[in-house]
Amino acid sequence: MATKHEMILQHILSLEVGQKISVRQIAKDLDVSDGTAYRAIKEAENQGLVSTIERVGTIRIEKKKKENFERLTFAEVVNIIDGQVLGGREGLHKTLSKFIIGAMQLEDMMRYTDAGSLLIIGNRVEAHYSALKAGAAVLITGGFDTDEKNKRLADETDLPIISTSYDTFTVASMINRAIYDQLIKKEIIFVGDIATPLEETFYLKTSDKVKDWYKLNKESTHTRFPVIDSKKQVVGMVSSKDIVGQDENLGINKLMSKKPHVVQSKTSLASASHTMVWEGIELLPVVDESRELTGVVSRQDVLKAMQQIQRQPQVGETISDIINSNIVASEDNPHVFISKVVPQMTNHLGTLGHGVFTALIIEASSRLLMDTRKADLSIENITVYFTKPVQIDSDLSIHPKILEIGRLYAKIDVEVYDDRILIGKGLLMAQLINR
């Protein structure tokens, strides 16, 4: 018999994607305590079945498949960037296919904006409308609002309009990081992610006979089956080599291999694979803490999953990576650095973002310290001044200069020029980490 916790999880699984969930309603519908309902909802959140959003509540979302690591739901985006939902709440469960930074003319922007995407943009109301008409959700940066017409359209199309106080660079970095955090986690796939569930599993009971094996073999075309007792606990495995030539009325419990290898749903795929190869096992029963059967995993399942892992990109390029890859040392002076302002580094006005400017200063300072002291830096304090907006495609010249340096600390002054015109400065204090 299922526990109350399992009963609530099954109830949540049965709800339609996009439906709101509350502790009080779950407790009332299933006649359980608020505490039990709360713990089950948190477990559902850990399993990726629901997402809790401030000022919106908890909603049922579609659980992402393992081969779809690089996608997020709009509900997850709201949580990542601490956003406020202005409209289209019913679409928060949907998955975004890509995001576009709106730092270009409207007609150019719309060439890249299609259904299922997320347009990250500032206070450009006409662009909000055009994106929604194209089937894309909208993320407005800088804490701006949109007009009522767009909010109504968002509600009609179930496409979220989200507002955040962060700038475009910071938002894109946060979403990128969340995506690639998932890609990193892909290495850790668990048996439960790929196992055949109990309702689709073929098994025998200790009370069954050899003739029951033949019947199940004909129905399933499988030759190996776990054997369970009256408590549904796995007590054996039986295969064709145990059965062939035996009397059809002989009990399975007389022929089965006792105390078989089993795994739990939280066993890593790597561990299960090692067990199968080392022991020459084709099928592993999946059990819970009490050794009760919950499903099976085959060697074929494991191989297919491991091939899928290999097809996933191994590393992802974040916006910080793009910034760092654009900085090169000057040919005239190895301690002066050059960087071109590419579209990903700009804000909604098409000028260099404040966060990008800070990242450029830190990267140039880090390279200077690596060249002169073979040390990494850990920023303790940084002050940044902008004196002039920087346009897209500008070629920046970054001049870090060490003011003070000791065994553990350094103070660095950085000047940034655009075509020999000072456009900003930075002063940072950093702790040195010697290599």
UniProtKB/TrEMBL annotation:
SMART domains assigned: CBS (SM00116)
Keywords: CBS domain, DNA-binding, Transcription, Transcription regulation
A single GO molecular function term of this UniProt record: DNA binding
All copies of domain CBS, residue ranges: 195-255, 256-314
Protein name: Thioesterase
Originating species: Oceanobacillus indicireducens
